[in-house]
Amino acid sequence: MTHQSIKKKSFLNLVLLILSGELIFLLPYVLARVFRPTFLEVFDLNNFELGSLFSVYGIVALLSYVYGGVISDKYPPRKLIAISLFFTAFGGVVFATYPSFLVLQILYGYWGFTTVFLFWGAMIKATRIWGGTNSQGQAFSFLDGGRGLVAASMSSIGVLIFSFFLVTEIELTTLSQRKEAFRYVILFSSFIVFFTGFIILFLMKNNEETVQTTNNFSSISQIKKTLKIPSVWLIMIIIVSAYVGYKVTDIYSLYASEVMLFNDLESANIGSLQLYLRPLVCIIIALISDKTSHVYLIIIGFITMFTGSLIFALGLVKFDMNFVFYLSLVVVATGTYAIRALYFSIMQKGLIPLALTGTAVGIISVVGYSPDIFATPLIGYIIDKYPGILGHQYVFLMLVFFSILGLGASIKFARLKKIN
């Protein structure tokens, strides 16, 4: 095989990882983030109920991370990723029927399994392999930036589909008309997720020989060995702190609706447009990440996230202050996305063996992604309990705390590993 063909195959692998890495979360997460006011209305939910759906998802995901990570260290990623996409898409058919709250809880639990158990560890491990020894920053920055571009593009298409099927101005439409228009968004999303599964099956089929596996290790020994690595615990804290910031991005469109008094389409556009910051930030990080320390960039990211969240927490972003709103949103999102682009890239510097990548990712993710359980219902409860700007201030105050926590863990990691 020539160097050029290897390079093409390697680039194709990254593109497929990017597509699958974001599309698998399109149904359970992206639609609710972009269309939050509409989403709450058509499913007849309040913010706490929506948060509890994410909590159900998070509990099942939590149970799936560890052993799912072990499985990803035993089998190649192609089939694991494709199967996950297929089963996730099937849930979208149920979603489009606007089921009862009980069925929604079951569905989100189902998605917590299909999007994590066979998928998450396989995707992260395949990305680490793609980055090799010297390009971990680029690998994970391109992955998260590409995922951000996919999310932003799909959200824009979703907004376009939603507006296309509305027969009149958004303010004049009935609830049934909005439900019918949003059903097309759900069905289109389900089709795209299912179709991507077929692409993965056909185009990743010759890439499995590069994947290191650990068939000679028992699951328990893998977990014990991984837990003895000090950097694993610090990465846990870094990720849980950053992920709270990512959970807060779910309310940007709601803030636009409730505080800035934007209509549903304008709010959805805020949710969509802020997603374009993710690929932009990640591209910048990819260009500079291998020229400086990844953990120092993470430290800067937490400082940035702290600054933006403090502005919101102090109540400085009010109605008719659109410029301040946009600027503060950009600051918080920039810090959040910068950290997300890099937090798995420091596994290399943290001396985590490649063969244990899936297991480490699973263990780290149990704590790192626990905001799926506590953050979303807590945010929903706060916003429902304290309507208007006050509830949003309390949410951003929580983010201030986690920014400080993540900053401390990042500094500790830098000192522990003496990264220069």
Structural notes for this entry:
It is built from 19 helices and no strands. By secondary structure, it is mainly α. It has a single domain (about 5-205, about 220-415), classed as Up-down Bundle (Growth Hormone, Chain: A), CATH 1.20.1250.20. α4 (about 45-70) packs antiparallel against α17 (about 355-370) and α11 (about 230-250) packs antiparallel against α16. Residues about 1-10 and about 205-220 have low confidence and may be disordered.
Briefly, what is this?
This protein is mainly α and 420 residues long. Helix content is 77%, strand content 0%. Helix 1 crosses helix 8, helix 1 packs antiparallel against helix 9 and helix 8 packs antiparallel against helix 13.
Question: What structural class results from the helix and strand content?
Answer: mainly alpha
Q: CATH topology, what is it called?
A: Growth Hormone, Chain: A
Spell out the CATH superfamily: MFS general substrate transporter like domains
Low-confidence stretches: 1-9, 206-218
**Helix fraction bin:** over 70%
Annotation, overall tally of beta strands:
0
Keywords:
77% helix, disordered N terminus, 420 residues, globular, 19 helices, single chain, mainly alpha, Growth Hormone, Chain: A
Detail the topology: elements first, then pairings.
Elements lengths: L2 H21 L2 H9 L1 H7 L4 H26 L4 H19 L5 H14 L5 H12 L4 H29 L10 H29 L15 H9 L2 H19 L3 H7 L5 H12 L1 H12 L5 H20 L8 H21 L14 H12 L2 H15 L3 H29 L3
